[in-house]
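Check my protein:
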Amino acid sequence: MRAGSPRLLREINDRAAIEALLRNGPLTRSELEGLIGLSKPATAQLLTRLEDADTVVRNGLRGGGRGPRAQLWSVNGALAHIAAVDLTPETVDIAIADISGAVLTEYKAPMPVKHGVLEAFVSAVGKACGQAGLSADQLLHVVVGCPGAVNPANGELAYAPHLPGWSNFDMPGQLREQLATSVSVENDVNLVALEEMVAGRATKVSDFVVIWPADLVGAAVVVNGSLLRGASGGAGEIDGLMIPDRAAADTDTDRSGGTFGELLSNTSICKLARAHGLAARNGHGAVRKALAAGPAGREFMADLAKRIATGVASVVAVLDPELILLSGDIAQAGGTTLNDLVAAELRQLVVPRTPIQLALVTGKPVRSGALHSALAFAREEVFGLPAATTAPFRGPVVAGSPR
């Protein structure tokens, strides 16, 4: 414990206790005492102080063993609420949570193709909030993950031709105005990288890249533990990267190739699958069929790995990261088979022997990353906890709220 005024010391200890409760969930007084290193009387006084301030609440009893059951304490989740949103061209997927991280409700809705997207989005957030007994203006912060990247100079969404209704206006600013609360907009793969840093394979890695090898190819670059966004927000936007098509099968395409995104589009992957005698409706379906076919699907998997590795090679050659993580439906469908084939191809293309692994976080990684980003913001605002204690990098620029 460092020297300082009694008030400063109390503030330091209070923050340490709040952080311990946020990280570990409900704790008994003795458990909290052990985590923050205070005496029994000091911890009891701290809990009384925080309870009087409505910062912590009693949360049941912990039984077991002999003797009386112990009182559990937790952070008062009702102090603030946040929204985490995964926005795609087809849908909006929303989670509403309190500041403790408890998800109160989930809501998913279709999105219009082009016209009325802003209205549909605001309506969906309003319905999600209604399910949680809130209104949108009661949210402390909203984080939206979407394909593309927001230009920090004007708030416009770039690198997102597949989201035409969201172009040519200040996206965070408009959402802030419509929702009457603080809003951040972040690239979806960047949020996957955040989730991998919090709860995935990159918890102990300082320099890594997440690759999303699917329709709308994307990447997130983390250098020295911080997300690299670039001058215009476009770092990692590799969908338009020109690469040759090294697949062995004849698909009647220009052998000089095309963009990374074109070669990994659902249409292109299904065409490659047909060249190998496999019929599928989309890319991850083709991968699943190839795996189910056993040796008969191996050549298709090898060709797909060549396309993925060719694009990844450019990233590795420039950045030489500690780790490459493959994420998204196609990577997960291909599993270790596709991962190992990509790794073998990459070793033939570049000198750095960068390890390649499957991303650990599956299910809803974009929304989960948005949730962690929103919680980091809220906990800094409410408790004064540095964002670094709850998330590895600071959240994106917040419209109308200087950071």
The CA atoms of residues 194 and 369 lie 6 Å apart. Confidence is low (pLDDT under 50) at residues 388-403. The chain is about 40% helix and 20% strand. The longest helix spans residues 298-319.
